[in-house]
Specification:
About 40% of the residues are buried. The chain has one domain. It is built from ten helices and no strands. The longest helix is centred in the middle third of the chain and has 41 residues. Helix 2 runs parallel beside helix 6 and helix 3 crosses helix 5. Helices cover about 80% and strands about 0% of the residues. The radius of gyration is 18 Å and the shape is flat.
């Protein structure tokens, strides 16, 4: 595999659109909470490394299923990216994420980010094909609020409304991400919240979560 093609495959295997969105969201949120200067760069590096590790582990775990069902959008299929080629990048990403998490947000905030990444990896390695597939999303997104507020000031903490909003966003993202692959996952006899509930119930749950999210957002904006 040529270097350029392999690099492109590795970038896509991070689940690049989602990873980029999370990095940009983290930078913007950290800036809104008051962070400036070099610390924003540390936030970006920690978040990018964490997101890359999560995407690569996900593709590593799902590689055989992706190949079997010819998921052409996956690098393991489209670019013939062997799962073994992801091992070293995963290790590097995790090693980068650790120190930069602490540099970005101190011991408490850095630990929150590391736990968020760990929660996402538990999804990849254990819970993704179970009814509890939504839980790591709720946990990781909630912990990110601690990371981002602490990156601005060790005396700054997210309100419970912000934590709740983040959890709702995480679970909603999981459902929206899983719905398009629901039928394929069924054929592969894979589980997950959406597969367990089915399309109609999943959309109903998503609708309820969105209303809860809007209620928490209104509460936060009006009452602080």
């Amino acid at each position: 595999m040529r270097i350029r093609t392999k690099f492109l495959a590795l970038v896509k295997a991070t689940h690049f659109p989602q990873a980029l969105a999370m990095v940009l969201l983290s930078i913007v949120a950290s800036a809104v909470f008051g962070q400036r200067g070099i610390q924003l760069l540390f936030v970006a590096i920690a978040t990018a490394a964490g997101q890359a590790s999560v995407g690569w582990v996900n593709d590593y775990v799902d590689a055989q299923t992706d190949i079997t069902f010819n998921r052409a959008h996956k690098p393991s299929v489209r670019y013939v990216l062997k799962p073994e080629a992801l091992k070293i990048p995963i290790i590097i990403a995790l090693l980068v994420s650790l120190p930069f998490s602490f540099l970005a947000a101190g011991w408490i905030g850095g630990s929150a980010h590391i736990l968020a990444v760990a929660s996402a990896q538990i999804y990849n390695l254990s819970l993704s094909r179970t009814f509890w597939s939504w839980l790591p999303y709720a946990v990781s997104f909630s912990l990110l609020t601690v990371f981002l507020t602490q990156s601005s000031s060790i005396g700054l903490w997210p309100s419970w409304q912000i934590v709740g909003i983040a959890a709702c966003v995480g679970v909603s993202a999981h459902i929206l991400n899983a719905l398009p692959d629901m039928e394929l996952d069924k054929r592969a006899q894979l589980g997950g919240l959406v597969v367990t509930l089915g399309r109609t119930k999943s959309i109903l749950v998503l609708t309820v979560i969105v209303f809860v999210l809007l209620g928490l957002l209104t509460w936060q904006l009006l009452l602080g």
